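Memo to structure team: turn this sequence into structure tokens by end of day. - J.P.
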Amino acid sequence: MSDPTEGTGTAETSGGEGGRHVRVVLVDDHRMFRTGVQAEIGQTEQTGVEVVGEAADVDQAVTVITATRPEVVLLDVHLPGGGGVEVLRRCAPLMSDAEQPVRFLALSVSDAAEDVIGVIRGGARGYVTKTITGADLINSIFRVQEGDAVFSPRLAGFVLDAFASTDAPPVDEDLDRLTQREREVLRLIARGYAYKEIAKQLFISVKTVESHVSAVLRKLQLSNRHELTRWATARRLV
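Reply from structure team:
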């Protein structure tokens, strides 16, 4: 990967069909996935996509995006440091830049309703899942660059219904208090996982799991994991 501070500004090179060109930053906490995406879409002369930076967590993402000012950011939803929603919150001024806006396309394995709605509320222009083909992902990137909203077919109708329907559920203020990682721990606790199992699945320490559980209980004003399980079940988060 090139230095994230290189290539800042409007690129003069062109590539891909019709001379299209877009500068992209990849944000995902799995290095092998970033490498795979880079190999799939990053052949600039053929695809027109230039990958100008990568990041594995929220702080790295904000630093690289601010330094490179790409046209499009491919953003994973689940990231260390607060998740994709936190990246969107901290990059809000860049999204609203009238001359060179940075647009975000969520690229995630998750198709959970709260994940989709959360990043769209945060300002992402679209949401596609990691089952997408390379050709469709390239097309989605260019559409987002042009200002379109892009969703995987199965999610499009759901998103429209969620925002257009007068019966759409209200924002859950309690749930919004939790970080993305705290929500992940919450779901696993509610499903009956032990702390050691959660630590292994999320690649974090048992002590970190304990800290997240304590934070969740405090923010939701609950006393123990049994109350937490009932709370999550009532909201259909399990």
